[in-house]
Amino acid sequence: QVHLVESGGGLVQAGGSLRLSCTTSTHTASNYAMGWFRQAPGKERAIVAGINWSGLLTYYADSVKGRFTISRDNAKNTVDLQMNSLKPEDTAVYYCAASSTLHTIVKPAPVLYDVWGQGTQVTVSS
What we know:
Blueprint: E1 4-7, E2 10-13, E3 18-24, E4 33-39, E5 46-51, E6 58-60, E7 68-73, E8 78-83, E9 92-99, E10 115-116, E11 120-125
Parallel strand pairs: 2-11
Antiparallel strand pairs: 1-3, 3-8, 4-5, 4-9, 5-6, 7-8, 9-10, 9-11
């Protein structure tokens, strides 16, 4: 069974950067599409960025394009999210997720992802 553990959240000033990392418990997840999602209070969970199994296909929400970069290292069982030029509206709990049904493609719907991490808080102060 695949387990996901996120790290790297914290408090940062607007304009700053953070790097989130997600470590998977087994190498099985190297075949899965992976995503980073976020959920702010009172809002629905939504995708921030996704990446297919090879790392050659990525997806970004419009709100983070040009600021965030998703990457993966299947040899290390990690998926990272580099977040630059952070804004207060980026404040949320960020979740790493894996999809056992998506491999070569990436889709944004949370319902397609069946393994989730516990989440890490990102707070951006103005």
